[in-house]
Amino acid sequence: MIKKRIYLDYASTTPIKGAVLKVMQKAQKNLFGNPSSIHDTGVKAKKEMKKSRSEIANILSVRGDEIIFTSGGTESNNLAIKGVIESFVEKGKQLSDLHIISSVIEHSSVLEPLRDLEKKGLSVTYLNVNEEGIISVEELRKSLSANTVLVSIHYGNNEIGVIQPVSKISKTIKEFEKENSAKEDRKILFHIDACQTPLYLSSLPVSMNADLVTFDSHKMYGPKGIGLLYVKNGTPILPVILGGGQEKGLRPSTENVPAIIGFAKAFCEAAKNRDKESKRLIQIRDYCFKKVIKELKGVIINGSVESRLPSNVNISIPDCDAEFLTIALSTHGIDTSTKSSCKEGERSSYVVDALGGPDWRAQNTLRLSFGFTTGKKDIDKAIAKIKKLSEVSRPMKTVKFRAKNEMEAESY
Questions:
Q1: DSSP string, 118-169
Q2: What are the residue numbers of the active site?
Q3: What pLDDT, on a 0 to 100 scale, did the predictor assign at position 391?
């Protein structure tokens, strides 16, 4: 029997911390009223929701009315992209006259809305990345044009943990606007997917010079089903879901007050523990890298080692069936992941594929992502088991063995 599971899939989802669960349980019992109702029970729920909004706003150094609660990162990303484009279309612009810049390694909740809009006529530039997974700011600058309305780039990649130079990107956008102010009066909006970063990096919208920023609760020890989109006041955006007037009319639906309260608590906990936990996990991550290089023959590290989230190690193992390895590790009490499996049915990672290298690299990926329960002993056990099982899986190239429920989707 497995005495203790080793959970190394924090980038996919995190457990709810006790302090978060405690405030949510209290809210579930006492704050069941609809915050749009005008009776006392509804007013009480609205008051506590407003308090939670203010707590998050203070942490992010933004105004409370710039926070739009959503069901999670996927909805926030869709709202940021499609909502902005809708605002231009409503003003009489044709999709073919509008241009968005993103990258080839964005989360699917960014790439899929872009591809959908492309089919309808929108122009999209997908920036390539270098061998470390980082976009070229120079290429971004060359891609900016008079009809560019939005740049959408993630801060920390969910799969390979690479940190993008968002401050340099925003500076480049501002410089382009200044140089072309006489030709084009329109502001270029900057959207950042920051779902993976609040636990480890300061993710203040003002510091990043962003107009829209996506956050997701279940990536930071909060509940699932709740996220937010920061929308800077004055940003042109329309709802993509129609209904009531909640969340400034941008996200109609009765707000999930207990989840919002839990989200706020998770934000507070993240801000309080960020520096200490980041330093601890950097040591764990670097220790893991050393073990990987020493123990696993021919292994390739995916993504920059320096510009990387403290919680992420992503590798490719030659001649190894990554899905077989992941399932086998799970049976031995170790939870890891291969690629992001939002794209069901794809055998290789489009993110790792963008880094170049041999064909097997994108097919044989294994991601270890760490959190508050992870220690060096967990790494020792995991690497030892990976070494043993990867050797067993090498001759298994022809085996078609998949879990009935697939790998857990890295949905936002």
A1: HHTT-EEEEE-B-TTS-B-HHHHHHH--TTEEEEEEESB-TTT-BBP-HHHH
A2: 342
A3: 81
